[in-house]
Amino acid sequence: MKYFSLFTLLLVVTASAAELRVSTDFEGGSAKVESIDQSARVIRFIPGGDPQRGWACWWYLRVDGAAKDERVMLSLAGSDRPSRNNGQDTGKPLAASWAMPTRATFSTDGKTWRHTAPGKREGERMLYEVTGTGGPLWIAWGPPFTPRDTDALLAEAEKKLPAAKLFELARTRGSRPVRGLHVNAATTPKPSGIWVQARQHAWESGSCWVARGFTEWLVSDDADAKWLRGHAEIFIVPIMDVDNAATGNGGKEAAPRDHNRDWDDKPVYPEVAAAQQRLRALAKEDRLAVFLDLHNPGPGDLKPFFFTGPPELLTEIGRANRENFLDAARARIAGPFALDPKPHLTGPTYHPLWKQISGQWVNAHGNPHTMAACLETSWNTPYSTTEGYRTVGRQLGQAVADFQRGKVAQSRE
Ligand SMILES: [Zn+2]
């Protein structure tokens, strides 16, 4: 009898699946696990971010214990913690839709990211199904991109192109390095200055993949990329809000200030102050040509679009340049993502602090010919993958080259 029970016990242990475990103790990780139903294989969780450090819509977790071909359900609800908006506590949680892409993103090696099948909305919750491999699974709101990925991207770019050099823009409030790429290979006198930055809002990981696509294109053998490198000095900063990207916080509407409402004379964030200093230096030499700030928009924005400031604040040449740039971008960003042909206007009706938004600051402190805009690439579409985002980045680079080449042609006329 004794032996029999031991045998039964062994049988039960062997037959039952391994325990599902969730971890978030890695760069960019974020989730608060509510419960794990080990027999139904359901993990219930909410985003783990601290709303004082930005909108708690980002989530990124690792699951261990899923056997090969075993199906595991991730049941997501919105954060239950009161959010901030327009620089104030709202007393209410953020709308859950910000945290709930139709398709979540997953990886079986922590490097290659794919979409899950569309999730199922059930009341307040969204259910995503993933299939185990016997190894760990990583599942996230969108394709993760952390400071470590910046370093890998910059190292790769340096290897490809000797004129591409890593630079440290600043150290964050949390003493983390903010790194970027400086490409200084122009052969023309007084080359145009081009500045591209992403991820002022830490949850918007897709913006980094657009920056990555831009970077990969820029250092490639593409003829347009070569032309641009020959005529411009280019800076790319793939992650501006490194602190919140590293800690898995949302960043947007963080206390004391939203990163993209920090563009005034007394910025709180050292990386904003450092960017302003470099942009001012380019403007002083009358060669600040293009400033692009990369973001992800709202859940319902299914076409990428540009935010631009009120045209009446620009000079005549500034307005013409913006139109020419938008024409170039419309022609290039045509598929699979098709750019919304109409830019959205930032101004007093968009946000009370609109003058402290990066593009507006650049227009106010740039040259009369400076073209500044913010590109919002949709995150809630079937194309919102690493591949889709990188394609937009490459197309954006081509649009910048077309735009700059148009100006050179004009000056020769
Ligand atoms: Zn944003």
Kindly describe this structure.
- This protein is of the alpha+beta class.
- It folds into 2 domains: about 20-140, Immunoglobulin-like, CATH 2.60.40.3120; about 145-410, 3-Layer(aba) Sandwich (Aminopeptidase).
- The protein contains 9 helices and 20 strands.
- The strands form 4 sheets. An 8-stranded mixed sheet has the order 13-14-16-15-17-20-18-19, with helices on both faces. Strands 1-4-12-8-9 form a 5-stranded antiparallel sheet, with no helix packed on it. Strands 2-3-5-11-10 form a 5-stranded mixed sheet, with no helix packed on it.
- Helix 3 crosses helix 9 and helix 4 crosses helix 9.
- The longest helix has 27 residues, at about 385-410.
- Zinc ion binds near residues 201, 204, 252 and 295.
In terms of topology, how is this protein built?
Blueprint: H1 2-15, E1 21-23, E2 32-37, E3 42-46, E4 60-64, E5 71-76, E6 82-85, E7 88-93, E8 105-107, E9 114-115, E10 120-122, E11 125-131, E12 137-140, H2 147-160, E13 164-171, E14 177-184, E15 192-198, H3 205-218, H4 223-231, E16 232-237, H5 242-247, H6 270-284, E17 288-295, E18 305-308, H7 316-332, E19 344-345, H8 358-365, E20 371-376, H9 386-412
Parallel strand pairs: 3-5, 15-16, 15-17, 17-20, 18-19
Antiparallel strand pairs: 1-4, 2-3, 4-12, 5-11, 6-7, 8-9, 8-12, 10-11, 13-14, 14-16, 18-20
Helix pairs in contact: 3-9, 4-9, 7-9
The chain binds zinc ion (ZN).
Keywords:
single chain, 413 residues, alpha+beta, Immunoglobulin-like, Aminopeptidase, 2 domains, eight-stranded mixed sheet, five-stranded antiparallel sheet, 9 helices, 20 strands, binds zinc ion
